Amino acid sequence: MPWFHLIIAGLLEVAWAIGLKQTAGWTRLGPSLITAALMIASFFFLSLALRTLPLGTAYAIWTGIGAVGTALIGIFIFDEPRTAARLVCILLIISGVVGLKLASTPPA
């Protein structure tokens, strides 16, 4: 269950990052309230995951999910640059997240 909580927390991080763009510097009430609620929910699920998972691993994976998800949304939804360097860096983050997950799971 902690890995499920961590994935949910990471996806909520992507959602609040997108919402943050919509707040226009916290000047739009509706998007600001939604973004704040998404932030709280993301931290809540991260805290549930931290009951069991190591802090460094959970935090790195949480931010990795957020970074990759937000970068991909930026590329596909907000038409941000699709340079080879950006894509390679995204792949490096993914490989780091997968590596941390594998290193944190005890052998069967």
From TrEMBL:
Domain of life from the UniProt record: Bacteria
Localization, UniProt: Cell membrane
UniProt keyword terms in alphabetical order: Cell membrane, Membrane, Transmembrane, Transmembrane helix, Transport
Bilayer topology annotation: Multi-pass membrane protein
Gene3D superfamilies: 1.10.3730.20
Principal subcellular localization: membrane
Spans through the membrane: 33-50, 57-78, 84-103
InterPro entries for the chain: EmrE-like (IPR037185), Small_drug/metabolite_transptr (IPR000390), Small_multidrug_res (IPR045324)
Family: Belongs to the drug/metabolite transporter (DMT) superfamily. Small multidrug resistance (SMR) (TC 2.A.7.1) family. Gdx/SugE subfamily.
Name of this chain's protein: Guanidinium exporter
Organism expressing this protein natively: Prosthecobacter fluviatilis
Gene: sugE
